[in-house]
Design a protein that fits this description.
The protein is α/β, with parallel strands linked by helices and 206 residues long. Helices cover 39% and strands 23% of the residues. Helix 9 links the parallel strand 6 and strand 7. The longest helix is centred in the C-terminal third of the chain and has 13 residues.
Length: 206
């Protein structure tokens, strides 16, 4: 068995989930600026996540669910996941973003699992609080080790794909490391670099 782990925002999905939410409140530029710094490794990921989610306080949860269902997938996502599964990979998604985005994508793409964070809501509105499995810059590294042990998959049989600083922790535990349209901080950790928005380009390297 082999394991493929994909980041979600700006990797499997073309954009940043939280920026789509922020746009509903007229805060897209403010939130996007924080996201950009976090992905470059200039801000602590946990602190940046808490700060950004707090800005979403008051957004209607029904609107959040609707946006999460309609997020645009990255070109080549479905074809790439389908081929990897045909080749014997278990394919999962790790996201510092949110379950309202990763779960619909899991169903559309046929992923085996998604690991992400949950936006807290009360009385139909976001409270500005968040919790979950991917809150810290080291979270992906910890989770990939758990899954490797669970499935008995070696790092030699592990593929990881990401674009930002918080993907570095999982890159440490895979022999095939793809920086996809990535920040420079992640490219330094990769052995495959793809700068075109087409996930199928990964397949030619395997």
């Amino acid at each position: 068995m082999k394991l493929a782990v994909f980041d979600f925002d700006s990797t499997l999905m073309d954009g940043e989930t939280i920026d789509f939410f922020a746009a509903e409140l007229g805060l897209e530029e403010k939130v996007a600026a924080i996201t950009e710094k976090a992905m470059k490794g200039e801000l602590d990921f946990f602190e940046s996540l808490i700060t950004r989610v707090k800005l979403l306080e008051g957004l209607e949860h029904d609107k959040v669910i609707q946006i999460g269902r309609d997020l645009p997938l990255m070109p080549g996502a479905l074809e790439t996941i389908t081929k990897l599964k045909e080749d014997g990979y278990k394919v999962v998604c790790f996201s510092g973003g949110f379950r309202v985005g990763t779960e619909p994508a899991k169903e559309k793409l046929g992923l085996d699992a998604d690991f992400s964070n949950i936006l807290h809501q009360k009385d139909g509105l976001l409270t500005g609080l968040v919790g979950g499995e991917m809150m810290f810059d080291y979270s992906k590294g910890e989770m990939i080790q758990r899954i490797q042990r669970l499935l008995n998959v070696s790092r030699a049989d592990t593929l990881v794909v990401g674009d930002g600083a918080n993907d570095r922790s999982m890159f440490k535990f895979a022999d095939t490391r793809v920086a996809f349209c990535a920040k420079d901080i992640l490219k330094k950790e990769a052995n495959i670099i793809i700068d075109t928005k087409d996930l199928t380009q990964i397949l030619s390297h395997l």
